[in-house]
Each structure stands twice: as structure tokens, then as C-alpha cells.
Amino acid sequence: MDPLRPTAPIRLDFAGPESRGVWLNPPPSHRSGGGLHLETGARTDFWQRTHYGFRHDDGHFWALLVAGDFTLEARARWTPRAQYDHCGLMVRAGPESWIKCSVEREDDRRSYLGSVVTNLGFSDWATQEVGAEVREMSYRVSRRDDDFLVECASDGTDWHQLRVAHLHGCPEVLSAGVYACSPVGERFACTFEYLELRPCGWAVYAG
Description:
- By secondary structure, the protein is an all-beta fold.
- It has one domain: Jelly Rolls, CATH 2.60.120.
- Helices cover 0% and strands 57% of the residues.
- The chain has strands at residues 10-12, 22-24, 29-32, 36-39, 46-48, 55-57, 60-67, 70-79, 86-94, 97-105, 110-119, 122-131, 136-144, 147-153, 160-166, 173-181, 189-198.
- The strands form three sheets. Strands 1, 3, 4, 8, 13, 14, 15 and 17 form an eight-stranded antiparallel β-sheet that branches. A seven-stranded antiparallel β-sheet has the order 2-7-16-9-10-11-12, with no helix packed on it.
- The N and C termini lie far apart (39 Å).
């Protein structure tokens, strides 16, 4: 599949079968129609080494191939079943180089809104606590050269910065799309209402 280089917005509403993207680790259940709906397989995750020592690259990821700078946006809704269930946006160069953002369930009282950056095979996790009642969120990731801006908006319009990050040795072409994981459980149900790819909207820093 040839990579996309967005010159105008491309919006996917998942009204029917979507041929533009490809799955990495397809989930056991998924369908299109009024969004992309999926249920996760058991003990799936994206994480490399840090603190826990384990290496997981078996989460479910539906992605477009994208060249150069871009902004990617999606809105997710979910019904968590187990600790650590999460879903959101991901941009990926390979199993040791990627960025993801999501809300991850902790317990019946709280979840963690955060982002993971994996460089050179080591993952980090930046978080802030939110209430367990948070069950939907919009996410946005913008690429400019090898740098990335990660944002979220609970209402889909009022955007807040989660982090600015760098991917080492970032190639021109990345996989960019939506993902879901169940690190300790299974059958975590989530829906992505849309996915929009457009030219980079992250302003150049003027100094």
C-alpha cells in the first residue's frame, strides 16, 4: 500500500468496510458501521521493557501508512472490563519506536489519562488521574519532522496538551491509527467514531 501524504483532510467514519488501513494483530472481533467497533483478545499490550521487564507487541492496531508531517485525530468510546484496559491513537515506526495515548482503567474509582513514548526499545508513561466515569475522549497527534505533539479533548473541541515528544531515528513513513489493549483481561469493547488525517496543524515554534 502506498503511503498517504495529506494535502487536505481525509476523514474515515467507518460507515462500512475500510480498505485504506491494515491491521497489526487483528482483534478476535471487529466490525465497521457507525464507527469501528472491536473487542480485544486476552492479555494484549504495547510496552517495551521499562520497570516491568516484559516486552509486549501484541495489542490490536488499525493503521494507515503516512509520509511526512501530519495531524491525526480520533474519538474513542469504551466500556472497560478489567484493570489496564485502554484504547486510543498510536503512531508507530516499529516494535521499538512508537507513541500511543489513551485513558487506562485502574479501578472503580479512577483511570489514568496518559501517553507512552517508546524510544530505542524502552517505554515511558506520563499520566494524570481522571475519574473512572470517563468513558470517551478525543485524541490528536501531530508530527513535525521527528517531533510530536500529543493532545486530548474530552468534548472534542477544547484541546489540551499531554506532551511534546521525539522519536529517535524516525523514518519518513509511519503507521498511524487506532489501537486497543487488554493487558490482564479480554473482551474490552471500544468504538472509534472516526479517524481524520490532515496536514500538520502544529504551528512552527517562532522562538
